[in-house]
Design a protein that fits this description.
Layout (H helix, E strand, L loop, with lengths): L7 H15 L3 E2 L5 E2 L3 H5 L22 E2 L4 H13 L5 E8 L14 E8 L16 H14 L6 E4 L8 E11 L3 E9 L1 H6 L6 E7 H7 L25
Length: 241
């Protein structure tokens, strides 16, 4: 017999949610269905995302295939909130996308952690004013998450505009960890894509591979031996011009 409990991966997924909520994001769950032009409206290339998985009897044209990216659905949630008077929106979702194949009956279903942030962290008050979310707010959330999972060798490098055309040039970064493995991106969504999704305010977003996060996460801190010799203080006197 085995004692009941969560697996290592389940604990890490829960940790991801806890950290993102602590950073001020609310969890949401959007439809797994998508419109056929979702990727093109945002400028997201189809390369590496397989072929669309069509729904045989879609209820509406806007949900006629399975999603191949989570960002369009989250941007729709941002637009919905803005249209209903909610000016500050910070959401995240952990979910699957569906990459179909021409000669296979089942698609690939990788999971991602995706977040969007628009507006401010809170409404202004008479004694306190908040700035709008920007690139560094989203980068800070990603850094907090990767630090909590103890990923090593985390790097942020300027995102290539040709590789990430749905992000604003100069305000986007590719995220790598574990010695150069690309695990996702973070940055401002391109204004052209926002307009196509009915969003009239700046939005910063991030997307990280759940599989990469779970694979590269470290549960135990590295052990360092206690020094066997006492420390030595040295006074230095330096003369400069």
């Amino acid at each position: 017999n085995h004692a009941g409990g969560l697996t290592v991966e389940q604990r890490r997924v829960r940790k991801i949610g806890q950290v993102l909520r602590a950073c001020g994001l609310s969890e949401t769950s959007t439809y797994n269905f998508a419109a056929p032009d979702d990727l093109s409206r945002l400028g997201i290339p189809e390369e590496g995302r397989g072929v669309p998985v069509k729904i045989i009897r879609p209820l509406v044209a806007e949900q006629s295939e399975m999603r191949r990216d989570m960002l369009p659905g989250l941007l729709r949630s941002v637009a919905y909130n803005l249209d209903h008077g909610v000016s500050n929106v910070a959401l995240y979702e952990i979910g699957r996308v569906f990459f179909g194949h021409e000669h296979k009956s089942l698609p690939d279903e990788p999971s991602y952690v995706c977040g969007v942030m628009a507006g401010k962290r809170a409404d202004d008050a008479w004694n306190q004013h908040f700035s709008d979310y920007d690139f560094f707010d989203a980068k800070g959330v990603v850094e907090e998450l990767l630090d909590a999972l103890r990923l090593t060798k985390v790097r942020f490098k300027v995102a290539d505009a040709e590789k990430y055309p749905w992000l604003q040039p100069g305000r986007a970064a590719e995220v790598t960890a574990g010695g150069g493995q690309v695990i996702g991106w973070v940055g401002n969504v391109h204004p052209r894509g926002l307009a196509a999704m009915g969003v009239e305010v700046p939005v910063v977003a991030f997307e990280l591979s759940e599989a990469a996060l779970l694979r590269l996460a470290v549960d135990q801190l590295p052990y360092e031996d206690i020094p066997t010799l006492p420390g030595v203080d040295v006074d230095l006197a330096i003369v400069v011009d």
